[in-house]
Design brief:
The structure is a single chain. By secondary structure, the chain is an alpha+beta fold. It contains 5 helices and 19 strands. Strands 1, 2, 3, 6, 17, 18 and 19 form a 7-stranded mixed beta sheet that branches. It has a 6-stranded mixed beta sheet with strand order 7-10-11-12-16-13. Helix 3 packs parallel to helix 4. The longest helix is centred in the middle third of the chain and has 30 residues.
């Protein structure tokens, strides 16, 4: 069982994270980690992919309040303790898992092939929020690669001065359009950099891979398809080797469909931003399949409970994956 959770600015009490936002009071913090603990307990996933974590200690507290046992709780770049003060500038992504972790890698810099020019900003060469690549080992010895990602948002990217103050007229429609274009280019270049990493991991291998997170766009958007390249498989069977598939589209229990599967509501419109993508090893109809996606669920009832930063503004997406054991039928992984 795997799940992706954008936890909405999880930070320790009294800690400033964004300019213009008050830090959490102790009461707010307790409500937030209690709420998250309850959500984690309901998900009961073997792997949780987390986004928007400012302080690893806050995540550890939320996991502890779930009452569940996890061997690994880590958010590279958001550590606390002597010499560490949590994430700086932007929140980080992390992973919580019961599975054995063999390696962890935060990808900060793009491959040179993914670097692009952004109007007014110059060459874009780094992720704003570094994806986390984890190599896990399941209980029967099978390897599993899990990538946690949080791509650049659609929020307009206005130019800033050396002190971080916006120095453009944000009320000018032309300036707004150019700022939105900057965000799109940045998100697209991040998607391309992530795609190149996926190809590196999957090309001519049989490694089962799951990519989860807040991709800040819909499953069939250009940026998501940059990462997944699913559409190429329709006319090129060889493309399946490195393609990723939306877990929604390949799940076995078709009664649970996308009509209730939105994970975010923006200005009254439901969207699917939080996604689970899988390699062909989890596509039952693929010749390279060693398992399948049994079902996918979205935990989104809290999106109707009003704006409350002690909750999340995203639904949490959970997928049940199965791997076929060497000498038996498919079983839950």
């Amino acid at each position: 069982m795997v799940a992706t959770c954008n936890v909405l600015n999880l930070a320790l009490p009294g800690r400033h994270f964004y300019e213009g936002q008050l830090p959490y009071s102790q009461n707010e913090y307790d409500r937030k980690v209690d709420w998250l603990g309850n959500r984690f307990r309901a998900l009961n996933a073997d792997v949780l992919a987390l986004q928007e974590v400012w302080d690893e200690d806050a995540l550890r507290t939320a996991v502890a309040r779930s009452g569940l046992q996890y061997g690994v709780v880590t958010v590279p770049g958001a550590e606390n303790g002597p010499g560490y003060a949590g994430a700086q500038g932007t929140p980080r992504v992390g992973i919580v898992t019961r599975l054995k972790v063999e390696s962890l890698e935060s990808i900060t810099d793009f491959s040179p092939a993914a670097a692009v020019q952004v109007p007014g900003l110059g060459l874009h060469t780094r992720f704003e929020r570094a994806p986390l690549v984890a190599t896990l080992r399941m209980k029967h010895g099978q390897p599993l690669c899990v990538i946690t990602a949080h791509l650049k948002s659609k929020r307009p990217k206005f130019l800033e001065d050396a002190n971080g103050k916006i120095n453009e007229d944000t009320d000018d429609p032309a300036v707004q359009a150019l700022a939105s274009l900057r965000s799109l280019i940045m998100r697209a270049s991040e998607a391309l950099a992530l795609r190149l990493k996926v190809v590196e991991l999957l090309h001519r291998t049989h490694l089962p891979l799951v990519l989860m997170g807040d991709l800040n766009d819909s499953p069939h958007s250009v940026t998501t398809q940059l990462i997944a390249a699913t559409s190429q498989t329709a006319y090129d069977k060889g493309a399946r080797d490195t393609a990723l598939y939306s877990a929604w589209d390949v799940q076995g229990e078709f009664a649970l469909r996308r009509d209730v599967a939105y994970s975010h509501i923006h200005q009254g419109f439901p969207e699917v931003l939080d996604q689970v993508l899988v390699s062909e090893e989890f596509v039952a109809t693929s010749r390279g399949a060693i398992g399948d996606v049994r079902r996918v669920e979205v935990f989104n009832d809290h999106l109707f409970e009003g704006r409350d930063r002690s909750h999340s503004d995203h639904g949490f997406v959970r997928a049940l994956l199965r791997l076929r054991l060497p000498d038996g039928p498919a079983s839950a992984a």
